[in-house]
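Researcher: Here's a chain I'd like modeled. Treat it as a single chain, no partners, no ligands.
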Amino acid sequence: MWSRPFIEFADDNTFVNKTHSKELLRAVAKQDIRWFTETDLSVADDVELLDMLRDAGCAEVLIGFEGTTFSGIDGLEQRTNWKARRVESYLEAIRRIQDRGVRVNGCFILGLDGTGTDSFDATWEFVQKSGLYDVQVTVQTAFPGTPLYARLKQDGRILRDEAWELCTLFDVNFQPAKMSVAELEAGLRWLGGRIYSEEATKARRAEFHHNYRRKLRQRGSSQRTADAFDPQYQTSINEAR
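Model: Modeled as a single isolated chain. Structure tokens:
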């Protein structure tokens, strides 16, 4: 349907099985396509996998960071608390991925029980410091039928029972633990206004392309010559221009 397709691999964690992931990337690399998908932070731990991502035409990975501090996401994962234990490595992981020319779309949840009104400033500061290419910000949403909904309902924190019209990820359907509903709503509007402004968006993307060109120069002229014939490299340079 398109001469240059852009494809989503619709898997919540495409690279959880590293052996299978590398087999997939070797196959995709032969297809000359551009694509994006979702993953967790562990992708940044595997240097071979990171290099293969770029060679296979991966343009962007979406990663759910959820918050920016240990206290903010402590207990969010009830079995392992894996993300909270990795929060100090977030910035380095983003750098490793984006140094390969693969953009990171970082996702954050506002209104988690471990966060207060200071989380809005903290998220904004993290986005600026990290150099994330894309950002998604949503509000914690208790969907009817989930354990979160059951817990909040038992605690008397659901605003209106079975109100599916509030389950948009941008409307508040529960009483936050450390702020008011109005404060959460105002914080979302304030943060969204800053992150998605034209000025901030252009600055993030310009920084990404600047850093990627710098990394290419560091890799040497022979590598740059090879990259000049790489469709993904050409796309990144054209976007930067």
